[in-house]
């Protein structure tokens, strides 16, 4: 299974410069982020991907779409792999709005408001990652899955901090990390 962190978003760009929440709800990719998505799609074209699972945040969908187009696969949108809710950027877009923005993506199974109402404790994100690990491990073809997600979810899943556009190969049949160190990215 391959985990891909979304490309650089407007939030990432400004937060990196100021280390303060710039207050952007559900930010989109920057030009660099779109380039990172294209580079990832090119690399993934050489992989035997048969399923693409993606977070409902716009930055994740924008990152997943070039790979989906190149591979001829639909996106499976699920909030299970979303970012830890901790900043304004983690306020999502309603499902109907996402459907209008991305008409080629099926949001029929997504609740209208799919993000939490308040900050999510780290242990809750780690629980979501463990649940997703178990769901993926139960599949015979997990090795052919691409998951487009976020810094916090990938950290909870692997114990590793990854950069925008970075990919990790993971085996969901292996145990979760013993310790996850949460430091702001």
TrEMBL record:
Annotated InterPro entries: His_Pase_superF_clade-1 (IPR013078), His_PPase_superfam (IPR029033), PG/BPGM_mutase_AS (IPR001345), PGM_Phosphatase (IPR050275)
Molecular function GO terms recorded: phosphatase activity
Gene3D superfamilies (alphabetical): Phosphoglycerate mutase-like
GO cellular component: cytoplasm
Alphabetized SUPFAM superfamilies for the sequence: Phosphoglycerate mutase-like
Name used for this protein in its record: Histidine phosphatase family protein
């Amino acid at each position: 299974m391959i985990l891909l962190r979304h490309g650089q978003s407007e939030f990432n760009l400004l937060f990196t410069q100021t280390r303060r929440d710039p207050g952007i709800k559900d930010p989109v990719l920057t030009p660099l982020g779109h380039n990172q998505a294209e580079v990832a799609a090119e690399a993934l074209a050489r992989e035997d991907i048969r399923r693409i699972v993606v977070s409902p945040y716009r930055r994740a969908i924008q990152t997943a779409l070039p790979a989906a187009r190149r591979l001829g696969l639909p996106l499976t949108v699920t909030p299970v792999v979303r970012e830890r809710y901790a900043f304004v950027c983690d306020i999502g877009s309603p499902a109907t709005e996402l459907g209008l923005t991305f008409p080629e993506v099926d949001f029929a199974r997504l609740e209208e408001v799919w993000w939490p109402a308040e900050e999510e404790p780290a242990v809750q994100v780690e629980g979501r990652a463990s649940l997703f690990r178990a769901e993926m491990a139960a599949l015979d073809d997990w090795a052919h899955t691409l998951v487009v997600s976020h810094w916090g979810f990938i950290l909870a899943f692997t114990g590793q901090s990854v950069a925008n556009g970075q990919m990790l190969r993971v085996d969901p049949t292996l145990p979760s990390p013993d310790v996850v160190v949460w430091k702001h990215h």
